[in-house]
Amino acid sequence: MKIAVVGTGYVGLVTGTCFAETGNHVTCVDIDERKVAKMRNREMPIFEPGLDLLFHRNIDQGRLSFTTSLAEGIEGAKVIFLALPTPPGEDGSADLKYILQVAEELGPILNQYVVVVDKSTVPVGTAEKVRARIAANATVDFDVVSNPEFLREGVAVDDFMKPDRVVVGTTSKDAQKVMEQLYAPLVRQGNPVIFMDEKSAELTKYAANSFLATKITFMNEIANLCELVGADVDAVRRGVGTDTRIGNRFLFAGIGYGGSCFPKDVQALEKTSKEYEYDFKLLDAVMEVNHRQKTKLFPKLIEYFGGSLKGKTIAVWGLAFKPNTDDIREAPALYNIKDFLEAGARVKVYDPEAMENVKEIFGDQITYCSHQYAASDESDALVIFTEWPVFRTPDFDVLQKGLNNPIIFDGRNLYDLEVMKELGFDYISVGRAEVRKHQTVKV
Ligand SMILES: NC(=O)c1ccc[n+]([C@@H]2O[C@H](COP(=O)([O-])OP(=O)(O)OC[C@H]3O[C@@H](n4cnc5c(N)ncnc54)[C@H](O)[C@@H]3O)[C@@H](O)[C@H]2O)c1
Ligand SMILES: O=c1ccn([C@@H]2O[C@H](COP(=O)(O)OP(=O)(O)O[C@H]3O[C@H](CO)[C@@H](O)[C@H](O)[C@H]3O)[C@@H](O)[C@H]2O)c(=O)[nH]1
């Protein structure tokens, strides 16, 4: 089948590449000329494990191409995916300007029946709006379908090729047939496609993300309580997660959820509720708790250093909002680095993939290190924000000899408390007892 994908961010690129891999001919359209030039040059614009192999293979086999021209991209396409940004607008609701602008441009250039698919995360009622925008200038028949994407960054290819489910919102039999044909290779491998109406599909995406954000936030609240009562959140997680009604995934307490999706989608669902005059109290609480959680370690650093970080050097391991991505959108590390700098500290950072993106924000205000120990060497404390595999089993000897004080603040609970005690580190994590051998370091 011939497919067009408009927008080649994470979702567009994965969607386009994976559908090429299942035998379709895909043209990706993006207005970013530099990005398109890069991709035409076989350069991957993002870091996503496993995607480059499929990307190169499908370009080489002539099934994946790139253009900046919408008209050229959609020529002959049976399906047009809109994988465009839906960032928070000024009031926090999803900004539909990118989607509606492309919908408007599509109307006059459609020349045969086509299925236009909202792949972006969009509020309830968007399919109707897109349909109206296209219809205003269209001379041919078309359908608009909601097909939200559930992939996670870092494991995007697997999530796309082996999804728990695919959700398709359409009340058109013609569109359903086209979508069934497109997803047939995944269905044959046992991955279900769930058909429903457009509005339910749109709401399913926000419900899923908000539920997962709530699950994490609930465990973060339990972690905070653990610290007060002297319990261990890891033990509690194992205890509750084995209940199959709860499930053991997305129960890891830490320094709050980040990324390009949970923060904006929880906020957008709260705005939708308000629009319908519904007071969704739970979502307000989730956002408030997550905000507090993100900067939870900062006061602990201040306390450890006797009231001030002035003149201290803080090493930061991990900048990306999660491992295996270079994405730093809403990453907890960014909030904290800003606080460290404002408190008068010097900051040395290391991340395996995200440093280039962080340079665009902090420039030369912080020091970028070529490896993890270059950050920790001669620093007064180490703070961990991302659970990259390489941070899970560090050389503790090198770490201890390099640090000016043997103190680790761990926002991801990577290390065993007993091991840290034996090694002689001071170790402050989330929802677990503090390992404190040394006295507060005086300024
Ligand atoms: N990132 C994820 O993991 C993820 C997962 C599921 C769903 N989503 C949703 O998918 C949507 C896209 O997210 P993303 O992270 O891929 O976005 P992104 O911001 O990474 O990329 C969007 C791309 O669209 C391009 N673009 C903007 N206007 C355009 C236009 N008029 N024509 C062509 N291209 C244009 C931009 O240049 C950019 O390359 C959002 O609604 C998001 O919520 C994202
Ligand atoms: O137990 C957990 C699991 C995750 N997180 C945090 O939650 C955030 C989001 O993580 P994850 O969901 O793995 O990454 P995303 O790539 O943002 O994926 C989410 O957002 C996407 C965009 O909508 C959806 O498609 C995915 O289904 C949904 O998981 C990150 O900050 C994680 O550190 C935790 O703190 N504890």
UniProtKB/TrEMBL annotation:
<keyword id="KW-0560">Oxidoreductase</keyword>
<feature type="binding site">
    <location>
        <position position="121"/>
    </location>
    <ligand>
        <name>NAD(+)</name>
    </ligand>
</feature>
<dbReference type="Pfam" id="PF03721">
    <property type="entry name" value="UDPG_MGDP_dh_N"/>
</dbReference>
<feature type="binding site">
    <location>
        <position position="322"/>
    </location>
    <ligand>
        <name>substrate</name>
    </ligand>
</feature>
<feature type="binding site">
    <location>
        <position position="258"/>
    </location>
    <ligand>
        <name>substrate</name>
    </ligand>
</feature>
<dbReference type="GO" id="GO:0000271">
    <property type="term" value="P:polysaccharide biosynthetic process"/>
</dbReference>
<dbReference type="InterPro" id="IPR028357">
    <property type="entry name" value="UDPglc_DH_bac"/>
</dbReference>
<feature type="binding site">
    <location>
        <position position="264"/>
    </location>
    <ligand>
        <name>NAD(+)</name>
    </ligand>
</feature>
<feature type="binding site">
    <location>
        <begin position="150"/>
        <end position="153"/>
    </location>
    <ligand>
        <name>substrate</name>
    </ligand>
</feature>
<feature type="active site" description="Nucleophile">
    <location>
        <position position="261"/>
    </location>
</feature>
<dbReference type="InterPro" id="IPR014027">
    <property type="entry name" value="UDP-Glc/GDP-Man_DH_C"/>
</dbReference>
<feature type="binding site">
    <location>
        <position position="329"/>
    </location>
    <ligand>
        <name>NAD(+)</name>
    </ligand>
</feature>
<dbReference type="InterPro" id="IPR036291">
    <property type="entry name" value="NAD(P)-bd_dom_sf"/>
</dbReference>
<dbReference type="Pfam" id="PF03720">
    <property type="entry name" value="UDPG_MGDP_dh_C"/>
</dbReference>
<feature type="binding site">
    <location>
        <position position="86"/>
    </location>
    <ligand>
        <name>NAD(+)</name>
    </ligand>
</feature>
<dbReference type="GO" id="GO:0003979">
    <property type="term" value="F:UDP-glucose 6-dehydrogenase activity"/>
</dbReference>
<feature type="binding site">
    <location>
        <begin position="250"/>
        <end position="254"/>
    </location>
    <ligand>
        <name>substrate</name>
    </ligand>
</feature>
<dbReference type="InterPro" id="IPR017476">
    <property type="entry name" value="UDP-Glc/GDP-Man"/>
</dbReference>
<feature type="domain" description="UDP-glucose/GDP-mannose dehydrogenase C-terminal">
    <location>
        <begin position="315"/>
        <end position="417"/>
    </location>
</feature>
<comment type="pathway">
    <text>Nucleotide-sugar biosynthesis; UDP-alpha-D-glucuronate biosynthesis; UDP-alpha-D-glucuronate from UDP-alpha-D-glucose: step 1/1.</text>
</comment>
<keyword id="KW-0520">NAD</keyword>
<dbReference type="Pfam" id="PF00984">
    <property type="entry name" value="UDPG_MGDP_dh"/>
</dbReference>
<protein>
    <recommendedName>
        <fullName>UDP-glucose 6-dehydrogenase</fullName>
        <ecNumber>1.1.1.22</ecNumber>
    </recommendedName>
</protein>
<dbReference type="InterPro" id="IPR036220">
    <property type="entry name" value="UDP-Glc/GDP-Man_DH_C_sf"/>
</dbReference>
<comment type="similarity">
    <text>Belongs to the UDP-glucose/GDP-mannose dehydrogenase family.</text>
</comment>
<dbReference type="GO" id="GO:0051287">
    <property type="term" value="F:NAD binding"/>
</dbReference>
<dbReference type="InterPro" id="IPR001732">
    <property type="entry name" value="UDP-Glc/GDP-Man_DH_N"/>
</dbReference>
<feature type="binding site">
    <location>
        <position position="205"/>
    </location>
    <ligand>
        <name>substrate</name>
    </ligand>
</feature>
<feature type="binding site">
    <location>
        <position position="35"/>
    </location>
    <ligand>
        <name>NAD(+)</name>
    </ligand>
</feature>
<dbReference type="InterPro" id="IPR008927">
    <property type="entry name" value="6-PGluconate_DH-like_C_sf"/>
</dbReference>
<feature type="binding site">
    <location>
        <position position="30"/>
    </location>
    <ligand>
        <name>NAD(+)</name>
    </ligand>
</feature>
<feature type="binding site">
    <location>
        <position position="153"/>
    </location>
    <ligand>
        <name>NAD(+)</name>
    </ligand>
</feature>
<dbReference type="InterPro" id="IPR014026">
    <property type="entry name" value="UDP-Glc/GDP-Man_DH_dimer"/>
</dbReference>
